[in-house]
Amino acid sequence: MSEIKNLKPECIWRNFDALTQVPRPSGHLEKVQNFLLDFAAKVGVEAFKDTAGNIVMRKPATPGKEGCKGVILQAHMDMVPQKSKESTHNFETDPIETYIDGDWVKARGTTLGSDNGIGVAAIMAVMEAKELKHGPVEALITADEETGMYGANDLPEGELNGDILLNLDSETWGKFVIGSAGGLDITATLEYKEADTDPDDAAIKVTLKGLKGGHSGLEIHEGRANANKLMARYVRDAITGCEARLASWHGGNMRNAIPFECEVVLTLPKENIEAAKELAADYKETFEHEYAGIESGIIFTAEETETPKKEVPEDIQDNLLDAIYACHNGVLRMIPAIPAVVETSSNLAIIDITEGNAAVKILARSSSESMKEYLANTLQSCFNMAGMKVTMSGGYTGWDPNTNSEILKLLEREYRELFGEEAEEKVDHAGLECSVILGKYPHLDVVSLGPTLRSPHTTGERCYIPTMAPFWDLLKKTLEDIPAK
């Protein structure tokens, strides 16, 4: 039984614990939507599901605070469904199994869902609080943020009444996010007629796992290995040195997560199997050397497997591999005026090649619209040269920083008075829904904040317990001190 509900502040941890019992992977949100509506009815606040699948709650001002500016507390209800290869967890039916490890809350074999379940739990704590003094408060809990910000993109105009938006989806305590990158999904596809495998050939399954993975925005600058890019190096050498042929490729499973594992099946002459295994051992040593200090658990193996009857035609194979090899991955440029912050990057997130279909999915990010367009055209050109059809979807613009924000100044003053130190202003390379919501409600004054989380979108996701109490104290004090209209 989880003990996290006994942590302080109890009002947030209890609600987060309840949330972990409700399946809520992106694309499967009916259970959590009903959970949130039931919660609102239980605590006596107005709530409804809008046409985009978002949950909106409204709590009236406490007596004497009716003239204050309205605050919208915003978070997203869905979570990234990543799990370890050994895990049997079903994200559509099973609760998340949490545990406490020192100062951190973690999950066993899966993502924790603190991104953005902690934000949702904080909103629930505000909605149920009886002693808290505040002006009009709305909650906007959006649907399917992780797969394309669909809830924010389809948010009806005129639905929200507030003047201030506090987004609770940031992941470093003590830093107020005032700007973020835009993003674009790029998908390259190709249909091909499979070739017959030489009946005298054998096959090997090449497995790469144990990489850190991570958030493709917040952690893209840390130099973590991309499983698809590493595998491309081995496959190219196996083709040229071991007469191998590509039968299938499966790498990565979330567009916004750095892929941490990849599996490829190659056919090859029986007499070259040992050479292919030795090549894998050599590459394991190479990768361990190249990523020393970054990746510590690299597993890279080649083992014999059942020989498939079909494989990728040689010319298609070569074109696909060239495109994967050439595809930009990682940081392209830092912000010239803020050189410590990533401006433009891409993540070669998912590769699936099997049974006559090839698909490559990439997430491009940039806080510059012109550089986002440049990167998208670069990637499109790369895969067009391989004969692939390239489509772009799920685009969203960046959020331009407003250093003169009134709510930012209030948060900074409250932080200084509560904790005796200065908070930092930050521009994130991650995509936040703030930019999309501002496109529909341009009058809003917006800041994003939250407690410290690490390694979201991975099985190493964790929440730092000592930051939760100060986060809650700041949120309460800020709501109490919201100025009059």
TrEMBL record:
TM regions (residue ranges): none
CDD domains reported in the protein's UniProt record: M20_pepD
Stored InterPro entries: Bact_exopeptidase_dim_dom, Peptidase_M20, Peptidase_M20_dimer, Peptidase_M20C
Cofactors required: Zn(2+); Co(2+)
Domain Peptidase M20 dimerisation: 207-292
Keywords for the protein's UniProt record, in alphabetical order: Cobalt, Hydrolase, Metal-binding, Metalloprotease, Protease, Zinc
GO cellular component: cytosol
One function term, GO molecular function aspect: metallodipeptidase activity
PANTHER family: CYTOSOL NON-SPECIFIC DIPEPTIDASE (PTHR43501)
Assigned protein family: Belongs to the peptidase M20C family.
Protein name, entry field: Cytosol non-specific dipeptidase
